[in-house]
Amino acid sequence: FITEMAFELPDLKYDYNALEPYIDGRTMEIHHSKHHGGYTSKLNDAVSGTDLEGLDIEAILKNVSTQSAGVRNNGGGYFNHNLFWEVMSPNGGGTPDGDLLDAINSAFGSFDAFKEKFSTAAATRFGSGWAWLVKTDSGLVVSSTPNQDNPLMDVADVKGTPVLGLDVWEHAYYLNYQNRRPEYIEAFWNIINWKEVSNRFGS
Ligand code: MN
Q: Rounded to the nearest whole angstrom, what is the distance from the C-alpha of residue 33 to the centroid of ligand 1?
């Protein structure tokens, strides 16, 4: 019989080297094909034959506290990287507009204040993890999570819908930036796909 794999590694919508000079092509290739690919196949292994098989990733993450470390780590890794590739673009950068900008101004006072807060969250996340802009019931919030956790998880300190995420694992930047995480964070602002972030924010 044929077993249909639940989760698939998505293709990028741009070439591996399209985000240069901000993120180099070799890093993107390894990050997507090896790291994201690994999370995807291990997630499929972890849910195969369990009652999670056939659930969408959001449903799995919502109750992840009841699941194994394999489901938590690989499910988070699968979802987080799907988001990460989408919120970057070779035509990115600049600033958001419309409802998203209004919500940022309302929550943080200004775009620059938001940028500072997000960058600090990314820079100060100890070890491996992510920085997030999260849509919560009480407006936009900046947070960070360890490992492959994310705001969809019931274990997260700040729970809500992640609309922007930055991977600060060393595998995301080490070839080009070595230990200089703040330079990688600053470069990220040049490639943020605000149109996609706005879509995820909704209104
Ligand atoms: Mn990563």
A: 11
pLDDT at 20: 98
Q: Report the separation in Å between the CA atom of 17 and the middle of ligand 1, taken as the mean of its atom positions.
A: 17
Name the percent of the chain lying above pLDDT 70: 97
CA of 3 to the centre of ligand 1 (A): 28
Distance 36 CA to ligand 1 centre (A): 7
Which residues have their alpha-adjacent CB atom under 5 A from ion ligand 1? Answer: 167, 169
Q: What is the pLDDT of residues 153-181, one digit of tens each?
A: 999 999 999 999 999 999 999 999 999 99
Q: Ligand 1 mean position to 55 CA, how many Å?
A: 23
As a whole number of angstroms, the distance between CA 173 and CA 183 comes to 9
**Is the bond leading into 10 cis (omega within 30 degrees of zero)?**
no
Judged on CB neighbours under 10 Å (0-12, 13-18, 19+), 190 is: middle
Q: Give distance in angstroms: CA of 147 to centre of ligand 1.
A: 9
What pTM was computed for the model?
0.96
Q: What pLDDT band is residue 3 in, cutting at 50, 70 and 90?
A: low
